[in-house]
């Protein structure tokens, strides 16, 4: 009997074998072999120019929300400061000049149509915006994100804690980064929110470079981290090779997902805003640390994944079982000291 396989037969056999192997659940834990799948989408936003109106931007957001819903999403993550251009690159002197970028109330008049469509479709979302609020007669401004449930309920807010850049312009640069000028440091900590689908935590852009951000949310049980960002392609403060910008972005997401056994939804505002380039690279990362889907443009683009939340639960029961393996008696310095103090 001739059992010689042609190259084509061997390829088909290999393909079938791999398909079968990838369908086998490798989790040796009966409790988490039951899939808990939920559709999460990331809506990447292309450039928003200074002259673009908030109304026009919200039309784009609603269009992406509808696409995400049509493809099975229950939740959508939109970017940081999604309603306007990334205005902290510009120098403004008085609140009268920069208040046009801020929203008052939730939903603000500009946001309202998005809130209404999302509620009609039964889709929850994260939206980044510039928040202006009155607190005991004092006006305060934050770089904020809001989490709205699929039923239209406002679940809560997060106010950005790690604000990059400077208060005063550096000058002699292509553009500035003045988040410390326009926003206060967030005062809400890193809250997480229980929803019927998953426990969700929020953070914003520069927060992703700091591991403490995600560990605090993970200790509160977050299964999904939602994150919006505006990251200029060029590092004006600390020059570095261009490729590192995307690499460090992805590395931060992958590490956050893996080390905390959670899903990461990362939504960029990207492309060239009035000539100022920002990276794309919106992505969904699994609790294994693997990017499962990534945006391929620097424009409006929806990416979606059917996320198995029990995958994170399995990892939290094994390698990252915090209660069994963390050694807090050795971590005190993390909250008692900011800068480096070298041992004598
Ligand atoms: N919006 C940001 O927080 N951007 C910062 C840049 C300035 C480094 C970021 O971490 O991507």
Automatic annotation (TrEMBL):
Q: Which SUPFAM superfamilies match?
A: Carbon-nitrogen hydrolase (SSF56317)
Q: Which InterPro entries match?
A: Aliph_Amidase/BUP, C-N_Hydrolase, C-N_Hydrolase_sf
Q: Which PROSITE patterns match?
A: CN_HYDROLASE
Q: Which residues form the CN hydrolase domain?
A: 38-311
Q: Which UniProt keywords apply?
A: Hydrolase
Gene3D superfamilies hit by this protein: Carbon-nitrogen hydrolase
Q: Does the keyword Lipid metabolism apply?
A: no
User: Is Cytoplasm set as a keyword in this record?
Assistant: no
* Coiled-coil residues: none
Q: Which domain of life is it from?
A: Bacteria
Molecular function (GO) terms for this protein are: hydrolase activity
> What is this protein called in UniProt?
N-carbamoyl-D-amino-acid hydrolase
Q: Which organism is it from?
A: Roseobacter sinensis
Q: What is the lineage of its organism?
A: Bacteria, Pseudomonadati, Pseudomonadota, Alphaproteobacteria, Rhodobacterales
């Amino acid at each position: 009997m001739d059992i010689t396989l042609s190259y084509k037969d061997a390829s088909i056999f290999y393909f079938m074998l791999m398909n079968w192997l990838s369908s086998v659940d490798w989790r040796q834990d009966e409790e988490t072999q039951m899939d808990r799948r939920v559709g999460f989408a990331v809506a990447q936003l292309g450039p928003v120019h200074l002259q673009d109106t908030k109304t026009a931007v919200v039309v784009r957001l609603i269009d992406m929300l509808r696409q995400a819903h049509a493809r099975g999403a229950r939740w959508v993550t939109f970017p940081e400061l999604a309603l306007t251009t990334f205005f902290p690159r510009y120098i403004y002197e008085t609140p009268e000049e920069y208040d046009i970028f801020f929203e008052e109330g939730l939903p603000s008049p500009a946001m309202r149509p998005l809130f209404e469509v999302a509620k009609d479709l039964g889709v929850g979302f994260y939206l980044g915006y510039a928040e202006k609020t009155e607190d005991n007669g004092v006006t305060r401004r934050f770089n904020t994100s809001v989490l709205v449930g699929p039923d239209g309920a406002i679940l809560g807010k997060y106010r950005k804690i790690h604000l990059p850049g400077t208060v005063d312009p550096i000058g002699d640069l292509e553009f500035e980064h003045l988040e410390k000028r326009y926003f206060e440091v967030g005062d809400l900590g890193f809250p997480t929110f229980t929803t019927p689908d998953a426990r969700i935590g929020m953070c914003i852009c520069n927060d992703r470079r700091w591991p403490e951000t995600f560990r605090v949310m993970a200790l509160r049980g977050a299964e999904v981290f939602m994150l919006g960002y505006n990251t200029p392609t060029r590092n004006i403060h600390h020059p570095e090779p261009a490729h590192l910008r995307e690499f460090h972005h992805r590395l931060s997401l992958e590490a956050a997902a893996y080390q905390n056994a959670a899903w990461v939804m990362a939504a960029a505002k990207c492309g060239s805003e009035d000539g100022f380039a920002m990276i794309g690279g919106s992505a969904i990362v699994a609790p294994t640390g693997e990017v499962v889907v990534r945006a391929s443009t620097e424009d409006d683009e929806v990416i979606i994944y059917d996320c198995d939340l029990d995958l994170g639960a399995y990892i939290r029961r094994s390698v990252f079982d915090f209660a069994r393996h963390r050694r807090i008696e050795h971590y005190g310095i993390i909250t008692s000291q900011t800068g480096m103090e070298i041992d004598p």
